[in-house]
Design a protein that fits this description.
Oligomer: single chain
Number of strands: 12
Number of helices: 8
CATH superfamily of the largest domain: Response regulator
Strand content: 15-25%
Shape: globular
Strand order of the largest sheet: 2-1-3-4-5
Number of domains: 2
Mean pLDDT: 89
Distance between the termini: 20 Å
Radius of gyration: 18 Å
């Protein structure tokens, strides 16, 4: 790690803060703490952390509302850590802009892996118009896709779907979010469209479509583009 990446922990539980600080510091990250939402906003604006770990049960503001406030201007990854484990709560957080969601109690090894994924994905998305994932190359400017240097023929909708997933690599995108972004607001309940197009894309870019490594299904929630 060339320079210590900073992680802001917004959580009022002292034990969780201590656990995270020990775990993350040992992995080479610089840690900043905030025990409530208002202090978290200030810390994020002052330090511009590489990543935020956000609890939803804060004493002064609900974490979902804080997530919306942060996403007005904060562009780096946010991972939610919460005891709230319902599908509705998870989908709401992801729709509000969270990159990932882990329920408490969580395994520290899994958290570290999720952190590496979102930080790596965030570093890929820069001013370059070309995204590369192993043998897959996506030219956003010219709307072309190559796999092992061979052109992959995609429809306009397939390319829109693939580019949306790739630009958000490492982030879980909900069904509703993808449908809104690719097809428009009127299609948010037409999840069958999404299933069909994901299946088509997998046939064209996955080595084994039945065991996909690029377009990963997050059961009941949506999809994650992985490497």
């Amino acid at each position: 790690m060339k320079e210590k990446e900073t992680i802001l922990i917004i959580d009022d539980e002292t034990q969780i803060q201590r656990l995270l600080e020990i775990t993350l510091s040992a992995s080479g990250y610089k840690i900043i703490h905030a025990q409530n939402g208002q202090d978290g906003l200030v810390a994020a604006a002052t330090n511009n952390p590489s990543l935020i770990l956000l609890d939803l049960g804060l004493p002064d503001i609900d974490g979902q509302n804080l997530l919306i406030k942060l996403r007005d201007w904060f562009k780096n990854p946010i991972i939610v850590l919460s005891v709230r484990n319902t599908e509705i709560e998870i989908i709401k957080a992801l729709d509000n802009g969270a990159n990932d969601y882990l329920t408490k109690p969580f395994r520290t090894g899994e958290l570290l892996a999720r952190i590496r994924v979102v930080l790596r994905a965030n570093s890929i998305i820069d001013n370059d118009s070309t995204l590369s994932f192993g043998d897959l190359c996506i030219d956003l400017l010219n709307h072309t896709v190559k796999l092992k240097n061979e052109i992959v023929k995609l429809t306009a909708t397939e390319f829109s779907l693939l580019s949306l997933l790739a630009k958000n690599s490492g982030r879980v995108l909900t069904h509703q979010y993808i449908l809104k972004e690719v097809w428009g607001y009127g299609y948010s309940e037409h999840s069958q469209y999404l299933r069909v197009f994901v299946a088509q894309l997998r046939k064209k870019i996955e080595e084994n479509p039945s065991k996909p490594k690029l377009i990963i299904t997050e059961s009941g929630i949506g999809y994650r583009f992985g490497e």
